[in-house]
Amino acid sequence: MPYKILDLFAGAGGLSLGFEMTGLFTVSAIVENNKNAAKTYIKNHPGLQNYNDILRVDFEKLRTDVGEIDVVIGGPPCQGFSNANRQRRQLINGSNELVKRYVKAVKEIRPNIFVMENVKAIASGKHSFCLTYEEQNYIENQLGLHIYNKEIVLYEGDYANQLLDLYNVHRKDLSSVSLMTEEELYVLYNVYKKKENLKKYFSKESNVKRVRDIMENLKNIEDFPEWYNENIEETKAALKILLEEKDSVINSLIKQLKLFWDIQRFYQGIQELNEKDAIYSVRGEGQKIKITMKTYVVIDYIKKAFEDLEYTVNGDVLNAVSFGVPQNRERYIFIGVKKDFKQIKKEEVKLPAPIIREPDKFVTVHEAIEDLKKYQPTTNGMEVDIVVDEKPVIDTYYKKMVMSTKNKYIYNHVCTQTSTAALERFKQIRVGENFHSLPESFKSTYENPARTQNTIYKRLDPQYPSDTVVNVRKSMWIHPELDRAVSAREAARLQSFPDSYKFYGTKDSVYQQIGNAVPPLLGRAIAESVLELLGNEDEFVSIRAIYDEIDKRKR
After folding, report:
1. Cα end-to-end distance, the chain, whole Å
2. pTM of the prediction?
3. CA-CA distance, 80 to 340, in Å (whole number)?
C-alpha cells in the first residue's frame, strides 16, 4: 500500500514526482494557488484534488476527504524581511505567512514525516521575520527565540522633519496621509526609472491610463501643511508635462516625481507595518527617518516551531547535481520525524548522501539535451507536440531516469520568437559566455549593463552541468550550438523532468513552472531517505543502485 502524500506549494509537481518515482508513494491532495502550475499538476495526475489557497485550507476537511496523510512535503516561499530600498517589494514579505502556514499544516495534519524545501540562504541567518503583537508571547516565551532589532532607513531627504511631524500627528490613522497604494507607487517608480525613454514607456496605452488615474486621484488634503499640498500639485503638473512631452525629459520634473515617491513610500511603509501588526519604533536622525523593528531569524523559528510540535528535525544543503541532475542547484532540505512515530536523535534523521561526487562524472548539458537539437522548436503555443522519429538509446543513468522509449511525441519543445536584436546578440556569444562578453554596441538597450546578472544571455556549455535553472525565457539562455533560445522541454530536461511529463499554460508560465520546480531526481533521493525512516530500506531500487549498475556497465 503506497504511503500517502500531501503536497503543499506543489507547483508543477517536481518534488512529489520524485517521491512517485520510487513506486511507494501516491499523492492524495495538493495545495497550489497558481492556476497554470495547478493545471499542469492535475493534467499529469487526473482526478487529484487541489485545495488551492494555503491561507484558506480547512485541514480538518482535507483529512476527512482523503484520509490520514503519511508525509507532508512542500517548499513555502521565504523572502523574509525586505530592506527599505524596494521598488515593488513590501517591507514585510507576504511569504512570512506562507512558511508559518506550512508549520500550521504539519500541526493539523500530524504526518509521521514532513519534508520542507527552501532556498540555500535560509540557513545563513540573514532571513528574518518581523515580530507582531499577536505572536509575541508565542515567539518569545513558548519558542524562546532571540529577538533582534533591525534598523532600516525609510526616508532620507530634506523633508525628514516635516514628514516625522506629520507622522506624529496622524500616526493612529495614516490612511489620510498615505495617498498611494503599493501598486501605484510601483507605477511612479517605473516612470522615474524609464526617464531616458519615456516615449517607449508611454507608447503603451495601459501605462498612460495608470498614470492618468494616479493624477486624477491626487487631491489636496484640507487642513494639511502647505508644503504637503504643494508637493501634490507640483507632482501632478510634472506628470502632465511628462505625458505630453514624451521625447524630452526635464530633470527637474523627474526630481519632483522622485521626491513625491519618496514621501509617499514612507507613509505607505508605515501603514503597511501597522496593517501587519508589527512591533516597531520610528525616529529621526538628521535628514533620515529610521525604523527599528523587532525581528527573529527564520531558520531558528522553523527549527523551534517543529520541536514545539514534537518533531525531530534535521536539515542541510543538497546540490541537485550530486544526484544526477545536469544542473548546479543548491537547496536547503528539512526532514522532520514525529517523535511518537519514531524516537530518534537529530543525527539519525539522515538526508541523502551524494551519488555522484566527482565533477567529471556529473551529468552534462550535452547528455541532457543533445538529441533534441535536430527537432526545430515551435514558437507557437505549448499544445504543439513534435513527433519522435526514433527512440532514444537508454545507455546512461540520466537517460534511463528521464528519457522514455514509450513516448511518441516531444512535449513543450517551444521557445520564444527571437527578435532581430536578440538574435544578433546570440551570434556574438560563445559557449560559456554571457551578456557581459558582448561588444558595448550590443548593450545599449539595457539601462545599466554593468549590473546585468551573469545568467542573462548565457550560452550553455555542453561539457558541464548548467547553472541553476530559473525562468530561462526571461534570462534569454542560449542553446550550446544553435543560435536560438533554450526551449521549455530543454529546460525541463535540465531539471530532470521525464519526457512524459507535459506542462500546460502560456509560454512564460511554463518556463516559470519549470524554473520554480524541485528537480524530480533530487526529489527521488529525498524520498528514499524518507522511505528508510519509514522502515522500507529494502523494498525499492535506489537511484544509487541504478547509477552504480550503469556506471559499472560503461566501464
Report:
1. 38
2. 0.90
3. 32
Distances (CA, A) of 22 to 253, 390, 399, 526: 62, 28, 17, 11
CA-closest candidate to residue 217, choices 264, 171, 254: 264
Question: Residues near 83 by Cβ (< 8 Å), separated by ≥ 6?
Answer: 152
Closest CA relative to residue 491, chosen from 472, 506, 474, 476: 472
- pLDDT value for 392: 82
33 contacts 53 by C-beta, under 8 angstroms: yes
> Residue 367: which H helix or E strand, with range?
helix 365-369
Sign of the CA dihedral with 88 first, then 91, 277, and 55 last? positive
Residues classed as catalytic? 78
Q: How far apart are CA 352 and CA 505, in angstroms?
A: 33
Per-residue pLDDT reduced to its tens digit, 489-543: 999 999 999 999 999 999 999 999 999 999 999 999 999 999 999 998 777 889 9
CA 191 from chain centre, in angstroms, equals 26
**What is the C-alpha separation between 480 and 458, in angstroms, rounded?**
9
Question: Hey, what's the cell of 248?
Answer: 524630452
Tally Cβ neighbours within 10 Å of residue 253. 20
For residue 289, the number of C-alpha atoms closer than 13 Å in the C-beta half-sphere is: 25
